């Protein structure tokens, strides 16, 4: 689905300019620029080691950029960190909820950290939306990975963020659950008019859910566009074919320039 560009004076959910991260001689992110508008789901794709998680960690304020600027809803992350971070949230498979607390306790504590108003009612809504009612008093550490993913997604939506960062949100889900979660995330993004940055290695998922994709390789954005139109534009049948081609021959797409 193509969505309209921002029509009012509202800044994009996310604007990144010349973002760079270097570890010694290794350039993990090489000065990238990108935008995520409201009502838009943007896929951040790339082979292992391309710089996706490093980028997301800089957007979350976990990693300090070597250079560049990040604005969330027009608010500069480095200058006004607290305010900017209150407008975002994330879910990632490598960041599970503390295992010794129950689902309810976790949502309550994260909700308090985010200063969510009407927290009790918000938690009930999310428990219902993510089919977590039966698990509310169960410790997160004993949940299956799919159940933990649903808790992480519920946590990510506690503060109804205008910018949602999702690092492989369906990686541990079975196909039916993944399909269900994709539908819920799309519905949520549409309802809340939020922008979503979504990383995934599942190209059919990306083609289904993302309005736009960015191909990252060796820390650079090599291609950008509609995931349904990009493959044909580059002489490939599917997004997966295109991904494989870019991963094998990044220099053909300008990775070395
Ligand atoms: N703390 C660090 N010190 C040194 N190098 C690092 C550090 N963190 C990441 N890197 C390197 O930066 C590069 C980008 O890593 P990153 O985790 O962002 O990739 P990715 O695109 O998320 O990969 P994957 O799909 O495998 O998760 C890799 O070469 C990685 O080894």
How would you write the strand order of the largest sheet?
A: 6-7-8-3-9-10
User: How many H/I helices?
Assistant: 9
Low-confidence stretches at least 5 residues in length (pLDDT < 50)? Answer: 1-5
Summarize the amount of helix as a percent range. 25-40%
Overall tally of domains: 2
Give the overall shape, derived from the CA principal axes: globular
Series of H and E elements: EEEHEEHEHHHEHEHEEHH
Bound molecules: adenosine-5'-triphosphate
Any idea of the CATH class of the largest domain? Alpha Beta
Distance between the termini: 32 Å
Mind telling me the CATH superfamily name of the largest domain? P-loop containing nucleotide triphosphate hydrolases
- Output mean pLDDT: 91
The CATH architecture of the largest domain comes to 3-Layer(aba) Sandwich
Query: What is the SS-derived class?
Result: alpha/beta
- Describe the main β-sheet briefly: 6 strands, mixed
Strand content: 15-25%
Label this structure with key terms.
257 residues; alpha/beta; Rossmann fold; four-stranded antiparallel sheet; 9 helices; 10 strands; 24% strand; globular; disordered N terminus
Question: What do you see in this structure?
Answer:
This is ABC transporter ATP-binding protein. It comes from Acidihalobacter prosperus. The protein is α/β, with parallel strands linked by helices and 257 residues long. The protein folds into two domains: 1-87 and 162-257, 3-Layer(aba) Sandwich (Rossmann fold); 95-160, no CATH class. Helices cover 33% and strands 24% of the residues. It contains nine helices and ten strands. The protein has a six-stranded mixed β-sheet with strand order 6-7-8-3-9-10, sandwiched between helices. Helix 3 (103-113) crosses helix 4 (119-129). It is globular, with a radius of gyration of 18 Å. It starts with 13 loop residues before the first strand and ends in a 9-residue tail after the last helix. The model is unreliable at 1-5 (pLDDT under 50).
């Amino acid at each position: 689905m193509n969505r309209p560009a921002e029509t009012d004076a509202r800044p994009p959910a996310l604007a990144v300019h010349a973002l760079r991260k270097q570890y010694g001689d290794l350039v993990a992110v090489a000065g990238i620029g990108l935008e995520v508008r409201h009502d838009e789901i943007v896929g951040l794709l790339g082979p292992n080691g391309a710089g996706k998680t490093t980028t997301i960690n800089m957007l979350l304020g976990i990693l300090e950029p070597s250079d560049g600027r990040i604005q969330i809803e027009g608010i500069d992350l480095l200058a006004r960190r607290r305010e900017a971070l209150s407008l975002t949230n994330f879910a990632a498979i490598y960041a599970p909820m503390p295992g010794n607390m129950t689902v309810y306790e976790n949502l309550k504590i994260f909700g308090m950290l985010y200063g969510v108003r009407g927290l009790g009612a918000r938690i009930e809504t999310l428990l219902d939306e993510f089919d977590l009612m039966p698990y509310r008093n169960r410790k997160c550490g004993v949940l299956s990975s799919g159940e933990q993913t649903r808790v992480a997604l519920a946590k990510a939506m506690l503060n109804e963020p205008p910018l949602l960062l999702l690092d492989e949100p369906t990686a541990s889900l079975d196909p039916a659950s993944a399909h269900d979660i994709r539908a819920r995330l799309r519905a949520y993004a549409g309802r809340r008019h939020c922008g979503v940055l979504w990383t995934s290695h599942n190209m059919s998922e990306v083609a289904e859910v993302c309005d736009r994709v960015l191909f990252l390789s060796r820390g650079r954005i090599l291609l950008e566009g509609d995931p349904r139109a990009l493959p044909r534009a580059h002489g490939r049948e599917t997004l997966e074919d295109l991904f494989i081609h870019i991963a094998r021959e990044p220099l053909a797409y300008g990775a070395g320039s």
